[in-house]
Design goal:
The protein is α+β, with helices and mostly antiparallel strands. It has helices at 93-103, 120-134, 138-156, 168-182, 190-197, 201-212, 216-233, 238-245, 250-261, 265-277, 287-293, and strands at 7-12, 19-26, 30-34, 40-47, 49-53, 56-60, 64-68, 74-78, 84-91, 110-112, 116-118, 157-159. The chain is built from eleven helices and twelve strands. The strands form three sheets. Strands 1-2-9-4-7-11 form a six-stranded antiparallel sheet. The longest helix has 19 residues, at 138-156. InterPro entries: AraC-bd (IPR003313), AraC_XylS_family_regulators (IPR050204), Homeodomain-like_sf (IPR009057), HTH-like (IPR037923), HTH_AraC (IPR018060).
Length: 347
Amino acid sequence: MTGSAERARHWTYTELPGVDLLRARYVRKTFARHTHEHYVMAAVTDGVDVFHHTGADRHAGPGTLALINPDTPHTGRGGGPEGWRYGAVYPAPELVAAIAAETTAIRGTPGFIDPVFADSYAVALVHQVLRAAEEGNALAADTVLRLAVTRLLRHNGGARPERTVRSAGERVAARARAVLEERLTDPPTLERLATGLGVSPFALLRAFREAYGMPPHAWLTDARVRRARHLLDAGTTPAEAAAAVGFTDQPHLNRHFTRIVGVPPGAYQRERKNVQDRPARPLVASPAWQNEHHPRNGQPPRTYAKPPPLPQPPRSRRTGRADRTPPSSATPSVSAWRSASPGSPSA
């Protein structure tokens, strides 16, 4: 990788409802333990993304994807001094469930099995979704997103285990979480929370960590940032959002928001608002196409070999005439596209 500046763009595309988009290059960035409401499909292009997930450090390098299911605690940092660069799409659970029901045999809630998956073709698909969204190519963005989700679920997916509360500790953790959700801006101390639930502080701490992968105070911060994101998307200012979710002030929100989302709340809101307010751009040929078909500097346009003639329909043995039986109108399955070259959908 060249250059040392960290940069990130977190945005949405109106033609892809329920999907968040991200392009980022981080060097010294570290993500605090957090969760996502959506699925994470992060395609690494340079460096190594190291993230703690399900009890172990995972390493995603070039040509691999970091795949994280909703509400799964994880962290994030670079695997070396050069940092890492990646692009990610975050489809909503409802969208992934609909795609899985149509294109896979998964029954139940779909999910990714391995958090790191090596598939250069899927990596290319993720970046094609981002490029199509940036170019305003709604048809390509939606098509390639569905291909990417289908491919990853077919090769690295299955039904997620249903979460049921069975043990006494899990029931205590669930009750504690409900209290924190209700008292997001005025949470009790650990001791008061435990006393109200009839357990000791350490018993509550252990049960909560086992159930949700993080202690109550970390879960509370994550929940506040998640709520702040919804408020920012609705047009609330960062200062107002900070007060509404329980942070002491906007710098307090800025610090935690950046450690979890990857960009400051002001930049997050500006980028997403700019996307929503941006007028539709006219469809124009890409620069590569223009250079190819309208060359400059006196260079002749590229020429291509004449394509071979289309095959003729077979002749009937009985009449000797061409068989005009119309072909099947069935749409090819997604799997039929798998072997195609991952060229730019917006070219």
